[in-house]
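task queued by scheduler; priority normal; single chain, no ligands, no partner chains; default sampling; output format set to structure tokens
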Amino acid sequence: MRRRERHGRGLRGPLAAPNSLTGAPVSLRQRTRPADFFTDCLRASISRTARVCPRALVGIDIGYEEVPGNLETWRSARVPLAAAVPARPGHNGQVVLFRRPLEHRANSRADLRRLVHRALLEQLSALTGIGLDELDPSGETDDDWD
């Protein structure tokens, strides 16, 4: 049985009383790690975009990195939230979202979800030429997520 920590003295006392009917310990739900939550946000955004405008994802690879790389060539005063790489012969186009800058900009988990979706849509629009209103007609503030 896991025990809670009080006043920095180590884990003491049960975190949850056993189930009164079965006597089995109650499992505690653990909070999702930030990287896992970000991945879930990105998956939900891709899924939503695939439902609304599947042609926007054809020939596009989508992924994320912790922070932007290649800082030597970076000349802007602002940290990029995402990047789009156009398709080349034999290679798909790429959309890369940067997890840490997006998390830093968001004020809440709901805000992060909207920000990830908006960043993905903007990069897809830049690569494909499809307008934002066609990629997400309901708008990115809609809370209709999977």
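post-processing summary
- The first helix runs from residue 34 to 52.
- Helices lie at 34-52, 99-105, 109-128, 132-135.
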